[in-house]
Amino acid sequence: MRIAVATLDDATITGHFRNSTRFAVFDAANGAVEPLGIREYGTAAPQDRHQGAVTLLHDCNALVCGALADRIAADLQQHGIEPVVAANCETIPVEAARLFAAGTLPRGVIHPCCCGGEH
Q1: ∠90-96-99 over CA atoms, to 5°?
Q2: pTM for this model (two decimals)
């Protein structure tokens, strides 16, 4: 399983997807989590962020972040990427990947989009 974790500093999970431009990617198998590297897509315009994330993370099974709205969650799901909201953004990315792979990552909830469709 390949897991992407949104992070700006490699030490914590990014608080909200809309601020995410950088993702730590891990492979998880048989209880082990191996880092694959960092992927970045820069500062795309808001309307491009959904497609940018889907394209950048096309080979991932899940995306862990601190919060995200239902529209990007639906976009990710349509491309086979499970959107995951972590309940604690202070979790380091490798630990978040390990907990997710084990099925024990405490989760938050996906919220309705509040931008009025502006992206």
Answers
A1: 130
A2: 0.88
